[in-house]
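User: hey, got a sec? need Glutamate-binding protein folded
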Amino acid sequence: MFTMKLRKVSAAAAAAIVLTLTATACGGDDGDSGSGSGSGSGGGDKIKIGIKYDQPGLGLKEPDGSFSGFDVDVATYVAKELGYEPDQIEWVETKSADRENALARGDVKFIAATYSITDERKEKVDFAGPYLLAHQDLLVKADSDIAEGTDLNGKKLCSVTGSTSAQNVKDEIAPDAQLKEYGTYSECIAGLQSGAVDAVTTDDSILAGFASQDQYKGQFKLAGLKLSNENYGIGVKKGDTATVNKINDAVEKMVSDGAWETAVKENFGPANYKNEPAPKIGQIVQ
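Assistant: Yep! Here you go:
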């Protein structure tokens, strides 16, 4: 980047100049490696944040390469409070099975990806939050007469392969429900639209996100059942207490200034999602 004309410069002096330029050029790269731990005050620093890429309303990679959803909005707000502008964020896809490993490896600074706080997970990672209290629920057609869990007896209930949500309903509420397992929630929603299944079950926030998509608006409704409590937290590498504290402060500010409520309405509102009030930091609902 620099053109220099050196005349009558000794070899030692030239070497000193080269070393000085090299040190100056490399000084702004610290935040681009690992988890992006730079100050965020400029100079090329970035922060890597883990999200889902395939959950409308929560974490979705749009066709144009941008990202949308409630988790994205929360993470962007938090990053801002940590000193990073939106263009300094590098979004990293973190699938459910790899979240703990991604934090342990330092692939990301933190994860906001429908990450329910559990005792088992707390043995491996630390959590800030919770920032949302979700519940297992049912998504049904807008004109469906399914209003209670027992109404699923004899009905086709869909969830994704490997999920325990549908099996829990069958075991505890509707033993005669017919379970249908699809590869993705998108397939379940398409099955609900076509009539191949009568209901889809998982977290109400995830269901609301799918139902809020333009192609589905007005077609579905949430049954409003609270079949479980899912305390969404922001995952941080085990032992990074300083970052946990900073994120907690950011989430509290997001709630107090109204940005949290705005993000809820914008991302889940079209599905008539009746969200719980913002949870208090450190308060886990069992």
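Quick note: The longest helix spans residues 11-26. Let me know if you need anything else on Glutamate-binding protein.
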